Batch of 2 targets.
Target 1
Amino acid sequence: MNFLEERIVKDGVVKAGNVLKVDSFLNHQMDIALLEEIGKEFKRRFGHKKITKVLTIEASGIGIACFVAKEFGVPMVFAKKTVSINIDGEMLVTEVESFTHKNKNRVIVAKRFISPDDHVLIIDDFLANGCALQGLISIAESAGATVEGLGIAIEKGFQFGGRAIRNLGYDLESLAIVESMDDTTGEIVFAPQK
Amino acid sequence: MNFLEERIVKDGVVKAGNVLKVDSFLNHQMDIALLEEIGKEFKRRFGHKKITKVLTIEASGIGIACFVAKEFGVPMVFAKKTVSINIDGEMLVTEVESFTHKNKNRVIVAKRFISPDDHVLIIDDFLANGCALQGLISIAESAGATVEGLGIAIEKGFQFGGRAIRNLGYDLESLAIVESMDDTTGEIVFAPQK
């Protein structure tokens, strides 16, 4: 097991309905040392590529994306889920469904922050059905940018999101891929790492 | 002028209605080196206090709060604006009004992440009427924690939020306090720093 898988086994909690709670260290309370280690691991996995921008979506992806962007020495942009009166100018817009909240969000990025010259690394904390990632891919590509890769902390391998995105030819790296979970025993089985 | 004031003058944009846009470096696209510098500056200003936790509110406070928490070597907790099905257990709840979005949000933190033993440093990117900060103070104090201080990147000094919080006796530090802005000339006047 790698450092993230070990931490999930130690502090993650499996709940009924295939819910994995990692809110004590990843997406509500954040262990900063862990985020830094995640940042370094994505640098190791994508460091051979030319990355000019890290793209994520609010809110829980922001922490990880900050430390990935720090490793690459590039700016981070986070997509917003609501239309703010403080965003003006041309916008890149898409709609994404939320597995967690069972609703649809309009997701926007100001067009001036992603250009056709950009080589984008997309980062998020979770991948389940892939709606958020597909939205971020759509935003980056509608700007004419190149999606160099996608880095996910935890993928639910038993949902179809990861397979769909890999089938489309994208370079998707997940640090922990959960193959199965049992909320009665708390057991978590991970897919083998490459 | 300090580093943040200089950056605001260089890259901030003044819009009608007392709107200051800093979305190219602080709250949509994020300049990571700037966030790191902000983290170090808050460590300098609050380093004499015992801090056990950094508390912020999603979404744009998260980036700054990560780097402040890194400097102090403590976890960061961000308050969430919606009720997620992934949060369970006892919750600390408050309601805050948003100046930007003209609406009210229910703001929650899982109770197990803030304890009576905690010494909390509250961090956010903007302070205008102070509703978000008051909500975070209320959450921390309802948990029995001690609010050691509040660190803000940009305060709108011509709104009443900062004064109200300082009058209540809290140690509030803002790295840039905008006294006035002119959207016709783009001029920004800062309050003198201590």
Target 2
Amino acid sequence: MSELRQDPTTYDWVIIAKERAKRPHEFKQSEALITPPPLHSKDCPFCPQNESMTPPAEAVYGTPDDWKIRVVPNKFAALTPEGDTIRNEWKLFRKSHGYGRHEVVIETPVHNQYIPFMDDVQVENLIKAYRDRYNALKKDHNIKIIIIFKNHGWAAGTSLEHPHTQIVASPIVPPFIRRRYEIATQHFDNTGRCLYCDLLKSELEASERTIAERKFFAALHPFASHYPFETWIMPRMHSSCFGNIVDIEIEELAPLLKEILLKLYISLGNPDYNLIIHTAPVDDERKTYYLWHIQIIPRLTLAAGFELGSGIYINTAMPEATAAFMRDVEV
Amino acid sequence: MSELRQDPTTYDWVIIAKERAKRPHEFKQSEALITPPPLHSKDCPFCPQNESMTPPAEAVYGTPDDWKIRVVPNKFAALTPEGDTIRNEWKLFRKSHGYGRHEVVIETPVHNQYIPFMDDVQVENLIKAYRDRYNALKKDHNIKIIIIFKNHGWAAGTSLEHPHTQIVASPIVPPFIRRRYEIATQHFDNTGRCLYCDLLKSELEASERTIAERKFFAALHPFASHYPFETWIMPRMHSSCFGNIVDIEIEELAPLLKEILLKLYISLGNPDYNLIIHTAPVDDERKTYYLWHIQIIPRLTLAAGFELGSGIYINTAMPEATAAFMRDVEV
């Protein structure tokens, strides 16, 4: 018999298909699928010597001739800082200009260097670059939410293999995010506590889904994981806004993120994945109802008609089993 | 500059990437990708002579030896009629048995006969089979919502190519569906009218996204389409519950559905797609706030980190352009 589990942060339900569930090692891709990319690619717009293939940089870490991280506007930006944010309506149809920002963080000059294989300092600087851009982008008072995300591999929606992260700064807080806030606000109004801090405390107490527990962060496969091997990295001290992360936290987060991604790399065979930094809307940063966190979604399964038509996800892995498996992966 | 558009039924926002938008003909897959399946496959559990490979049928249309449509329990059911629907809680974690039903409608005995190539009567009988199963499944008082959906092709999440539809009967109405209801209820409380009927009226008045307008149904690419070539077929007379569709409506719907799917088949090169019948929760069938409708989602693009992290979809096609293109496809 399968199990229905509710996500306490969204009230969404997930079907954990226990009998159909694969065992954790069965999700590993065959090695044949993994063709290692080269160190440098002459056609790659993100490789050194090809800087003219991107729009001029917004920020460069290192020197212009020996950069370590480059931040550039997305050449195919979904949102651009043009026009205004005024809504226009005709009958039920509401629209506005696609105002906003869309940047690319080129994570390394090395075409084939994925995060788990970077040195710790490079990953620390990468997280600092995310923080810098977050805090720079929010100065535009039209910007209401900043989404930092990474698409690794084709099934995760990327077309460029050079390691990169994207940042979209949007003038609109979508219902997808507002709903999380409403639920967390109601929990706070009822209990006086942050929903996410309570959730983390319960996860650590249950312990069966915990992968790593450090001073400032913990990593786990959540109770109502929507996807096999879905992984959350949560701060242990309350902070709603990613932009407020401090250096001492980054020094712990960088090796932890490397470790988690390396465990996924080893156990799943370099899976395609999305990484998302969930953080409060800009105007809600000071509220104590929310906890910024990182979500990693390996793209091992496809959403089908049932998921698209009901919002109920079928997860073919038990998060308790995948977490135990991840704990045991040697890195 | 791109455009932000709001879906009036969910309040979700979509980015219509106008400059990045492909023109409609550019979405067509190369013919090389299309390998026609055989008429009959000896290993297919849904082909005649292989009836013993499925659980015993719940319903058969035609005779047992010369069936036209067979409905069987899903051998790998996500939900099964075992146990109870009682929620168990420990701290913030809520779960229940995976109670429910999961059926497969084998649409035809012919392994390679897709809906647009069936005769009208076969498609009418298929829609009647959906209706019969809907009305049979809702007799279980634990069932609160029935989702009828179809996964056509690998990218739409199917592993079996023989034409089939699935039906999941769930004891839980998920927030994904409740939210649509809340928005429609608020519209009704404010205006005294059905949101979806108002929406259809506005779409028909705007006319630029309409593909077909018949006596009982209209087909269109909605204003805030989340996906390129996303198509809705909506009843023109108010009805919240698919289970109440009458034969005279089915006689119009069958050839219309064939036509829409044939236009997609021709213009996109047999695309993978999901088809979903959205209908009211069982206990809300009598309410006048909702309109059952069919949504067809060709799987031409992938949701990436931005979509998974914000719920904002980037659509790389203009629905006005794809609708005009669909209108002109000769069938």
